[in-house]
Amino acid sequence: MKFQYRPKGVCSQLMDIEVEDGHIVNVEVMGGCSGNLQGISRLVKGMSVDDAIERMDGIRCGMKRSSCPDQLAQALKQIRDEAQS
What we know:
single chain, alpha+beta, about 25% strand, 3 strands, 3 helices, three-stranded antiparallel sheet, about 40% helix
């Protein structure tokens, strides 16, 4: 399943996420801190959606209420919920 997510309250502008059988196949993030987001995208590749959510949910960036990893977790929650429907 391919999914597009618009992050809220962070520097990144768009996340393209591909998930198959409950595992992350690919993540591409437009905008934000390029090196950090490329690293996160590579680290989560092959990881289960639930493990990625558990590790990234609630991470904050400075004084912001969220972060790019947290927004990726929010996107993955939506993907998981849609798959369960």
